[in-house]
Write a sequence for this structure.
């Protein structure tokens, strides 16, 4: 069975970030907020595999977030 692609929207804020996950047909998989930190960002992406597509605004934290979640 081939893994299904998922799409992750990430809104990074200075104190609390929001993550929304939908599957390929647009159905909501999960939605959660978490305190913005490197460890919490890693934890938020720990369960997702290579078929995850991440979408976030090009803000001041985008490069930092990319460097944290890219290895995942």
């Amino acid at each position: 069975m081939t893994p299904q692609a998922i799409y992750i929207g990430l809104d990074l804020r200075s104190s609390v970030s929001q993550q929304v996950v939908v599957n390929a047909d647009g159905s909501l998989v999960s939605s959660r907020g978490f305190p913005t930190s490197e460890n919490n960002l890693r934890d938020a992406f720990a369960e997702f595999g290579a078929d995850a597509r991440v979408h976030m605004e090009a803000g001041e934290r985008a490069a930092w977030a990319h460097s944290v979640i890219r290895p995942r």
Remarks:
- The longest helix spans residues 38-45.
